[in-house]
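Field: sequence (string)
Field: structure_tokens (string)

Example rows 1 and 2, in order.
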Amino acid sequence: MKILFDENVKDLFKSSDVYLNIKGHYQRALGQYINVHPSFKAEPYSSFNNGLNVTSIGSFSYFNSVVPGNSLDMQVGRYCSIAGGLTVMGGNHPMDRFTTSSITYDRNFIICTKSIEDDDSHFKIKPNKSNYKGQVIIGNDVWIGTRVTLSRGVNIGDGAVVASNALVTKDVPPYAIVGGNPAKIIRYRFDKDIISELCRIKWWQYKYTDFDIESDLSIDKFINFIDTSDLEPYTPPQMKFSDIQ
């Protein structure tokens, strides 16, 4: 849905700490329409640095890419870094019908509907059940490189890294580094025991500013810090679609 980004919407974004620029500016969006899905929700300290599309996003995550217009229902976790050029493949065309053309299923495409109307045709358009494969879900602490293409319905696991120019057609396991066309696992960021511990502690449920540590603390000491600290989960208010209608 298109929402006019006026002063009221700008004030809502600003007060919610949801940004449209790396410096926190909103000038490029003022007076323009942003594209928002009804499922949209955003946590504070998140940013869409390119384009006027927004999607559900967790704290400390950002897009340097334009959010793909066919995936405004995407879900992105916390602490994610998404580089430029992200694309999401469209739905599949049917291969078991007499044609793979959109004429058999697309009620929104003028070349399909107008020709039927003009000829007063009895041709029946039927939904393509294979067309929609579900939303893209990106976990927490995910890094997606430049010019990555994702299939609809893929799940990128927590801690994963997707190399530049990768084509991801299958789910990516937590902490896997994948690359290639189609993408395959290159290696994992840590050994399986460390990955198991990271998945157990779910450190992204906390606000990093509560971490009384140096940022380059070794991973085993970091896990011990989370385990032995009395941290409260970070549960900030979310800005939702209903807030900006």
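Row 2 begins here:
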Amino acid sequence: MNGHSRLSVLAVDADRPALEDLGKLLSNSPRVAETLCASSASEALRLFATREVHALFSEVRMPGFDGLELASVLNRFANPPAVVFVSPNEDGAARAFELGARDYLRKPVTQRRLEEAVARVSNPASDAEGGANTEAEPSLRRPVVGVHRLHDGATRIISLSSILYVSAQGDYVRIVTDTGRYLQRATITEIARRWKSYGFHRVHRAYVVNLRRAQEMRPQIGGTASLALVDGSEIPVARRHSAELRRRLRM
């Protein structure tokens, strides 16, 4: 879709009142030409088989065949629709963005927040992190992650390449990027494991760093070190991680 086309969208939710509310919000959007509604993932698939639908707005948790499974099936289509998930909680956010979701809306959804999501669907190129603090077009070539913005708690999509470092914050991690700070419910160990293949490395029990954003390693007294990043910040490096980090930085 481009910014000059109006969308045909499908709203899916097993809860009838919630489905009606979501359908009404979508119908009120000037970017939406047609709003279809389905009360189950199976019904949604039947509609996709007979209608041209540009975008799916789906509840994550539904009885039986849920929204995540629906998106996974649709991703196998030759021309899959853009997907936006809707949920009262954040439990499905990580999996949602792994599936390439354009956005993740928290219930109750407001018209303003919905318009942001519709904009990302209709014109994703205009929504890079430099503008709306999101990564708009998830792909395997440009990995993304779902996070929560610190100042208002809104769920956003950011590119892994924009991340400088991650620090442990109890049951959450704080993610520091070029343009802001975010939270994600995860442990620092999980982050180190999941993002290792994207150039992230654990340098301390409380820090994981994006090595692509590192400038130099600076020795400290006692065998420890610090790692200077491109934004001028410094991250502590534990003694047991120093040798491996030096080797990685020489690669």
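free_text_note (row 2): Helices lie at 16-27, 41-50, 67-74, 93-98, 111-122, 129-132, 188-194, 239-250.
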